[in-house]
Design brief:
The protein has 9 helices and 10 strands. A two-stranded parallel sheet has the order 1-10. The protein has a two-stranded antiparallel ribbon with strand order 2-5. The structure holds 2-acetamido-2-deoxy-beta-D-glucopyranose (2 copies) and copper (II) ion. It comes from Stachybotrys elegans.
Length: 386
């Protein structure tokens, strides 16, 4: 497959012209495509100037694609692999996570267990990068999936989220909304930014995950009237997958914000980038990362057990895509980190180190954080986004 077939020729002046005019393009969907092209071009330039080394290069990297651009057959092969993972027996130690039943649960369990040390921390971006990659590898190695991890493009279907091929309820989607259940709304973070209740709230009523059983959680549901798991965070609590899909949080997934974190003032350091990406909850600003979870509502709105919803991995692939774009366009900051080892430094803790290990539990060996900076080169990874 030739990479240049996917690229709109834009040239380096594109970034310069955005900076010069101090004007953001009007359309986030257009901007992300241009940024993606620009990121690939920057990598090509680094490679041709021999600023990059290692075995995985642009010539043999795999491509992660927009779910909307996959064929129906490609989508169903991904969904089949997810359902396969949900049917294979768990490998987790039951004395650690007594609630895990399936290989899918093994991913949910490690995310639940580590939540306080992988969000608003120095390892947030790299831990989630390795997590999504490990899941992609399990789909391929354990369930015969031939494709790559797709992403959910946040900037399409913002006004008609139920038309999104991710949530349209068809057999090649992740299903649509939950059954209507009267509830008091969904609340973001400890600050409790309110998201009005939508038309759902209950069990997902159509699509391939209609009968999915979620075995772990809830731990800290955004839908606060959901009872937390009586058996503890890693205990067995089988139930349906819940959603209350709403485009309300998408007000924070817009072109100004995308521009800000990729090329604008919030792109200048990793600290600004990751903090603006993860929202400023005291200001009522949810930010793109949390907004994507809250669009699905229900189980996805629980910071601990959000991977209960299989769309988690499409959302976090998009988070990783934006991180990858930012790294490619800011090579001098690409391998820097900021932040501590506790969520929002609460309780206060030491700074994260590039030698800290990214722990995947039974899903993959731990690797040092610094091995997850690059998606090419001599890392476990070998992919780019198109
Ligand atoms: C990519 O190509 C390089 C050089 O030809 C090779 O050493 C490496 O193993 C390849 N990597 C993958 C993932 O195919
Ligand atoms: C850009 O990010 C900075 C840093 O977090 C923030 O103060 C500012 O309000 C943001 N600007 C826009 C237009 O969102
Ligand atoms: Cu997470």
């Amino acid at each position: 497959m030739r990479l240049d077939l996917f690229l709109v020729p834009l040239g380096l002046p594109f970034v310069a012209s955005l900076r010069d005019t101090r004007r953001t393009p009007e359309d986030a969907n257009g901007l992300i495509l241009k940024l993606n092209n620009q990121a690939v071009e920057a990598l090509e330039n680094q490679q041709s100037r021999a600023e990059r080394s290692g075995t995985c290069t642009l010539a043999n990297a795999t491509f992660r694609k927009d779910w909307a651009l996959l064929t129906t057959k490609e989508r169903t092969s991904y969904i089949d692999a997810v359902k396969c993972l949900q049917s294979k027996p768990s490998k987790s130690d039951p004395s650690w996570a007594p609630g895990t039943r399936t290989r899918y649960d093994d991913f949910l369990a490690i995310h639940i267990d580590l939540t306080p040390s992988i969000h608003r921390t120095g390892n947030f971006l790299t831990w989630h990068r390795y997590f999504v990659w490990t899941y992609e590898r399990a789909l391929r190695d354990e369930c015969g999936y031939q494709g790559t991890q797709p992403y959910w493009n946040w900037f399409a279907h913002q006004n008609d989220i139920f038309q999104s091929p991710v949530y349209d309820g068809s057999p090649s989607s992740f299903g649509g909304n939950g059954e209507y259940v009267k509830h008091a709304g969904i609340f973001v973070g400890r600050e409790g930014i309110p998201i009005p209740a939508g038309e759902g709230g209950g069990c997902v009523k159509d699509g391939p995950f209609k009968d999915m059983v979620v075995n772990l959680g809830p731990v800290r549901p955004g839908m606060r009237d959901l009872p937390i798991s009586p058996t503890g965070p890693l205990g067995y609590n089988p139930r349906c997958l819940r959603r209350d899909i709403t485009s309300f949080p998408m007000r924070d997934m817009n072109v100004e914000n995308l521009f800000n974190i990729t090329l604008g003032p919030a792109s200048h350091t990793v600290s600004l980038f990751q903090d603006e990406f993860q929202g400023r909850f005291p200001d009522g600003f949810i930010g793109m990362h949390a907004s994507g979870h809250f669009v699905a509502g229900g189980d996805a709105s629980d910071v601990f057990s959000s991977p209960a919803d299989p769309t988690f991995f499409l959302h976090h692939a998009m988070v990783d895509r934006v991180y990858w774009i930012w790294q490619s366009l800011h090579p001098s900051s690409a391998k820097t980190i900021a932040g501590t080892i506790t969520m929002g430094n609460n309780p206060p803790s030491r700074d994260a180190l590039v030698t800290d290990l990214l722990n995947m539990g039974v899903n993959a060996p731990s690797i040092p954080l610094e091995d997850a900076f690059d998606t090419l080169g001599d890392t476990p990874f070998c992919y780019i986004y198109i």
